[in-house]
């Protein structure tokens, strides 16, 4: 899944955008921004990802390393992710503000030249139109790929001798898997119903770049949070977390 998911997301974005351009699909419940998945999950996407990955990374990495400092080092990936989320979303807002203009109606025919920012425009009852990079395309891409990368640790983890720990890790795995399905589905719905193609493409590429720059480049370095353990080099069998 880790190998094909980046290409799969890019394919979903291109396919969904093509269907939107051809207007082949009628409006539906998912085309409304008020749908429950958008309100209660997507708008809180980083919070859901953060608070489910936090115990998962802490438990699995401590179980394998028995080292608190190593566990904290790996948890710092969530701080990196928080910085990526904050910087990118702030940059998107600045780009929309810098490239936009204020209009008196959604028809974008008459300018409100006295309003020079999106905030001033909306306060004045106008309609701001700029290059609105899809924050959903960016964040859902990054969150889905980050979760899949972190769950790779299960290939070298054995919790069967500790029933309580086994139950906790399995519950977190199920929750993270379900969350990933929601992120991928809502990513596809974004491609189908919202934003222009260039806005979705840019957002998706930023998400892919953030994932690649961390998990495929920086985390390979010694001065980084590092990758989750993905091989059983410490022993001939999967380490058993029974204590």
Automatic annotation (TrEMBL):
Keywords: Endoplasmic reticulum, Hydrolase, Lipid metabolism, Membrane, Signal, Transmembrane, Transmembrane helix. It comes from the Eukaryota. Residues 1-23 form the signal peptide. It is found in: Endoplasmic reticulum membrane. Its main location: endoplasmic reticulum. The keyword NAD does not apply. GO terms for biological process: cytoskeleton organization; fat cell differentiation; fatty-acyl-CoA catabolic process; intracellular triglyceride homeostasis; lipid droplet formation; phospholipid biosynthetic process; regulation of cell morphogenesis; triglyceride metabolic process. It is a multi-pass membrane protein. One of its GO terms (cellular component) is endoplasmic reticulum membrane. One of its GO terms (molecular function) is coenzyme A diphosphatase activity. Pfam families: FIT. The chain crosses the membrane at residues 39-64, 76-95, 138-157, 169-195, 201-219. InterPro entries: FIT, FITM1/2. PANTHER family: ACYL-COENZYME A DIPHOSPHATASE FITM2 (PTHR23129:SF1). This is Fat storage inducing transmembrane protein 2.
């Amino acid at each position: 899944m880790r190998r094909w998911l980046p290409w799969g997301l890019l394919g979903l974005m291109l396919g969904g955008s093509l269907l939107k351009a051809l207007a082949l699909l009628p409006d539906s419940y998912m085309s409304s921004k008020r749908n429950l998945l958008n309100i209660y999950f997507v708008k809180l996407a980083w919070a859901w990802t953060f608070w489910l990955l936090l115990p998962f990374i802490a438990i699995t990495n401590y179980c394998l390393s028995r080292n608190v400092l190593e566990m904290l080092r790996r948890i710092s990936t969530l701080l990196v992710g928080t910085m990526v989320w904050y910087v990118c979303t702030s940059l998107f807002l600045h780009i929309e503000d810098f490239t936009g203009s204020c209009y008196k109606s959604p028809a974008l025919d008459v300018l409100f030249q006295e309003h020079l920012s999106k905030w001033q425009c909306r306060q004045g009852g106008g309609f701001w139109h700029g290059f609105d990079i899809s924050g959903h395309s960016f964040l859902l891409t990054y969150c889905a790929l980050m979760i899949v990368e972190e769950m790779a640790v299960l290939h070298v983890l054995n919790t069967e001798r500790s029933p309580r720990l086994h139950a906790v890790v399995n519950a977190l795995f199920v929750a993270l898997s379900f969350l990933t399905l929601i992120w991928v589905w809502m990513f596809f719905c974004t491609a189908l119903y919202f934003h222009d193609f260039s806005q979705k493409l840019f957002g998706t590429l930023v998400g892919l770049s953030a994932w690649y720059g961390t998990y495929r480049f920086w985390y390979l370095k010694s001065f980084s949070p590092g990758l989750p353990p993905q091989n059983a080099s410490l022993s001939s069998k999967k380490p058993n977390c029974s204590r």
